[in-house]
Every structure is written in structure tokens, then in C-alpha cells.
Design brief:
Distance between the termini of chain A: 32 Å
Largest sheet of chain B: none
CATH class of one domain in chain A: Alpha Beta
Helix content of chain A: 25-40%
Shape of chain A: globular
Order of helices and strands of chain B: HHHHHHHHHH
Number of helices of chain A: 8
Number of strands of chain B: 0
CATH superfamily of one domain in chain A: P-loop containing nucleotide triphosphate hydrolases
CATH architecture of one domain in chain A: 3-Layer(aba) Sandwich
Oligomer: heterodimer
Structural class of chain A: alpha/beta
Shape of chain B: globular
Strand content of chain A: 25-35%
Number of helices of chain B: 10
Helix content of chain B: over 70%
CATH topology of one domain in chain A: Rossmann fold
Structural class of chain B: mainly alpha
Strand content of chain B: under 5%
């Protein structure tokens, strides 16, 4: 059974000059523990789709099934990481990452105990007592991802988490994300406008058209796992990337 | 030392101002009962000090109690206004209008209602301090990052949790900015309250000095009022450092 299933989702916004169609008849499925990417040019409604799944925006028509049923409160299943890291500036790193646990009523000591053990994997060991403004961009993103994972939900929605990072940090973070994903075994729906990133990370890629966003292409990535960084030079990788790029250009 | 550099210019300017004042009074042969020179005031100040302290106690008490009361009510109202937009729209104009009423015209009423004791002064202080605090907190809460609020919603946070975790902390910097204004108003508010009728306090001390043309006394009281206000300001600044370490780290202070 699919973890996330979108059935013909449409959404338009009322602007001054009439309705602006943002997303049109989008259908997608994300399987359990799959890594699926949604690629498209800016303004193609990628974030809108994520916001609809997260329950922040209501679709005009279509259905969303999580674990095969329509859920009133998606926060039961979903953990969302927006584009900006949105760490709370007034909370220390440790208190930022345990925020979802605290909100659901877990005692601070217990939540901290759980988080401390993970600090090493997320490259934040020794920075627990710092404030977010004292961290580098990459560290902030890792902290934000740690917070997303600590929420202990089956599904992670990641909205261009590495968009603001420089190329080198970005590539490191991608390889690291694969390791984290392998360890925590979650379902990920990942948004990016970087085709290479999508191919490197995903099991399946959906390509969105220009506004209004429609699914142009659904493609399974035939690369084996676990993937090493040098896989990006293999011919299979390049071929897949070309297919996706062609779909975007059409 | 960093401290000496930071304070060099303020000290320089204040000294220059006092010297200019002294010079104008002496060279212009201005009579003492019209405007005393700083040196006259300083000569009078030590023997006035015990009396000023005695009166200052009452002024400070009224100011602090009124200030704290204003903070508490302002915080409660700001949170309520944040939860209910209807309440916000209804009350905000009232708050602004309340600031157009000259406090000096209604303060005598408080004396009729609440007597000559501490209470009418506390009411005046609370009224003067309330507005800057409620406006600063309320605007600070409104200015909280909507994306952060949305993120907490997706995490399943309740309205109260969102206020506690995002809106109130986000409002802290502007809350302290409002507190600094209100804090300096508070001593002045107490003095105005006492001015209109009291048995003790710097306000009544000043009125008496005025009536008997003892301007050295009047200025001595002004010095105390300024000192108390500055002290309160520094206390608020210190509190902001304790309560918002993250804010000062961000600004590299």
C-alpha cells in the first residue's frame, strides 16, 4: 500500500485579476520507505503540493490518502521540513531539535536523552548548548533535519532543504542524507529544482511542468543502492539525468 | 578598556553642557532665585540628600508598583488580542484614544476617587506605562515569522503552545524596547501623581520648593528623578541580557 497517494489534486489562488491555477490534476504515489523527488522549475507549485499534503493549504479538488485513508490531521503521520531551517532563535540547538517531542508532551529530560545520542550522526556533537545563530548554514540544516526526524513520523516532507547551501556543502549533505535515510528508514518526499540531486537521491522522480503545475514525467531511477558519490559519473546516472532534463525542457 | 571608550563621549557632552550652564549663569549675572548654577545645586545637594531619599522612597515605590501592574495587564491583554482578532480590532482604537487624554487633567479625579495615599499615584503610573508595553508586545507577537507558526502547526502544536514557543519569544526584543520607554515614564508618572496632591514624595517636594522659590532644591529633586529613571533603564537593559541571551549573541553585543 502506498504511503502517500495524491489523486487529481488541483489548486488555484484568487489574485486581483482572477483565478491563478497553481496545481492541476496532480496524481502521485509514494511507496512505504521510498525516496521520491518532485522536480520542477520555480513557480511550478512544488511547495504548494507539499503544503497541501502537510495540511497547511486546502486543495480545491482531489484527494490525499495517507496510509490509504483520508486523514483530518496530517501531523499524525507527517513531519515537514520547510525551505528555511526555521530553527527558533531563542532555543538552544538541543531544545530546538526536541521541540516536536516536547510539543507532544514528552518530558524534557527524556527527550534530551534521546537527542543526545543522535548528535554525533547529525554532526552537532559539542554544539548542543549553542544558539542557532552560532551555527553554519550546513549545521543549521542538519539540526532542522534532526528535528524533523525526531518527530518520529513515518513520512518526511523536505522542501529544498539544501537549496541555500554552497555546492560543496550541498554535495556532502546529500551523501549524508542518504546515510541518515538508510538508518532511520522513513518515507521521504523531496522537493528540488536540481535534477542531479534528484537522480542521486531518489527511487522515483516526478517532473512538474511550468505553472500550472502538471505531472509531465514519472520515472523510476534504476540505480542500485547504496549509492556512492562517484555514481554520478556512471552512464546509467547520466542517461537518467538526460531523460529528466528533456522532460523539463519540453 | 571597552567601557571607558563607550562612556567617554556621553561624559564629555554632559560635562560640556554643565560648564556652559555654569558660564551663562555667572557671566550673565542671573540671580539665584531665577536659575541656580550647577555649582549652587551641587553645594545644596549633600544636605538635601537625606530628605530627598525619604521622599524618593515613596516615589520609587509608586513607580515600581505601577510599572509592574502595567506590565502584567499589558501582557495579558496583548495575548488576548493575539488570540482574538475581534478583540484586537475593538480595543486597539480605544488604546490609542486613551493616550490622547491628558493625564494631568484626570489625575485630580484619581485623588478624589482614591484619596491622597499611594493608590492614585500607582494608577497614574500604570496608565502611563501600560500603553507602550501593550503596543510593543502586541506588535512583536504579530511580527512573528508566519512560517515558524505554520511549522509548529504541522507539528501539531496547540494555539497556546504556538504563543508560548513562538509568538511571545519573538515579541521579547520589542517588549524590552517598550519596557525601556515605560520604565522612564514610570518615575515621571509617579512625580506627576504626587504633584497634584500627596503628603510624601518627590513630586510634592518639588511643588513646595517651587512655591518658595528654592530652585536649588527643585533641581536637586530633578537630579534624583533622573538618576532613578536611568537606574531603572539600566536594570531593564540588564534584564534583557539575562532573558534574551540569544538576541545579544545574534547582534554580537
Amino acid at each position: 500500500m502506498a504511503k502517500i497517494e495524491l489523486v487529481e489534486i488541483s489548486k488555484s489562488y484568487n489574485t486581483g485579476g482572477g483565478a491563478l491555477d497553481v496545481v492541476q490534476q496532480v496524481s502521485m504515489t509514494v511507496g512505504d520507505k521510498q525516496f521520491v523527488s518532485l522536480v520542477g522549475p520555480s513557480g511550478s507549485g512544488k511547495s504548494t503540493i507539499l503544503n497541501i499534503i502537510a495540511g497547511l493549504v486546502k486543495q480545491d479538488s482531489g484527494r490525499i490518502l495517507l496510509d490509504g485513508r483520508e486523514i483530518a490531521d496530517p501531523s499524525e503521520v507527517i513531519s515537514y521540513m520547510p525551505q528555511k531551517d526555521l530553527l527558533l532563535p531563542w532555543r538552544r540547538v538541543i531544545d530546538n531539535v526536541i521541540l516536536p517531542l516536547k510539543l507532544s508532551g514528552v518530558r524534557r529530560e527524556k527527550a534530551v536523552q534521546e537527542a543526545v545520542n543522535l548528535m554525533e550522526i547529525f554532526g552537532l556533537k559539542g554544539f548542543e548548548q549553542r544558539y542557532p545563530s552560532e551555527l553554519s548554514g550546513g549545521m543549521r540544516q542538519r539540526a532542522a533535519l534532526m528535528r524533523t526526524i525526531l518527530a518520529k513520523k513515518d513520512v518526511l516532507l523536505l522542501d529544498e532543504p539544501f537549496g541555500a547551501l554552497d555546492a560543496i556543502t550541498r554535495f556532502k549533505m546529500q551523501s549524508w542524507l542518504l546515510k541518515v535515510w538508510d538508518r532511520f528508514q522513513r518515507t521521504i518526499l523531496f522537493i528540488t529544482h536540481d535534477v542531479e540531486e534528484a537522480v542521486y537521491l531518489s527511487d522515483k522522480i516526478y517532473v512538474l511542468s511550468q505553472r500550472p503545475g502538471r505531472i509531465k514525467l514519472e520515472i523510476n531511477v534504476p540505480l542500485p543502492r547504496p549509492r556512492k558519490p562517484d555514481i554520478i559519473t556512471s552512464s546509467l546516472f547520466v542517461k537518467t539525468k538526460e531523460k529528466v532534463l528533456k522532460a523539463i525542457e519540453q | 578598556m571597552v567601557m571607558t571608550i563607550k562612556y567617554r563621549y556621553p561624559v564629555l557632552f554632559i560635562t560640556a553642557l554643565l560648564l556652559a550652564w555654569e558660564g551663562v549663569v555667572r557671566l550673565g549675572n542671573i540671580p539665584r532665585w531665577l536659575l541656580p548654577a550647577p555649582s549652587d545645586i551641587m553645594a545644596e545637594f549633600p544636605q538635601m540628600l537625606p530628605l530627598l531619599m525619604e521622599h524618593g522612597k515613596y516615589t520609587l515605590l509608586a513607580a515600581l508598583v505601577g510599572f509592574v501592574l502595567a506590565i502584567i495587564t499589558a501582557l495579558i491583554l496583548a495575548v488576548l488580542m493575539d488570540v482574538s482578532p475581534a478583540l484586537r480590532q475593538g480595543i486597539y482604537p480605544l488604546l490609542v484614544i486613551s493616550q490622547t487624554i491628558p493625564i494631568i487633567s484626570v489625575a485630580p479625579l484619581f485623588i478624589i476617587w482614591f484619596g491622597y495615599g499611594l493608590l492614585p499615584k500607582i494608577v497614574v503610573v500604570a496608565l502611563v506605562c501600560f500603553f507602550p508595553v501593550v503596543v510593543s508586545v502586541s506588535q512583536g507577537m504579530q511580527a512573528a515569522d508566519q512560517d515558524m507558526v505554520d511549522l509548529l502547526k504541522v507539528m501539531g502544536a496547540s494555539t497556546w503552545q504556538i504563543i508560548k514557543e513562538v509568538r511571545l519569544p519573538a515579541a521579547l526584543p520589542s517588549f524590552f524596547a517598550g519596557l525601556k520607554i515605560a520604565g522612564t515614564y514610570s518615575i515621571m508618572g509617579a512625580v506627576i501623581g504626587e504633584w497634584l496632591g500627596a503628603s510624601k514624595g518627590l513630586g510634592i517636594f518639588m511643588t513646595r520648593a517651587m512655591h518658595s522659590y528654592q530652585f536649588e532644591r527643585l533641581f536637586s529633586a530633578i537630579v534624583i528623578v533622573s538618576l532613578l529613571s536611568v537606574l531603572l533603564f539600566l536594570l531593564i537593559e540588564a534584564a534583557s541580557r539575562v532573558l534574551m541571551p540569544w538576541y545579544h549573541i545574534e547582534r554580537k553585543e
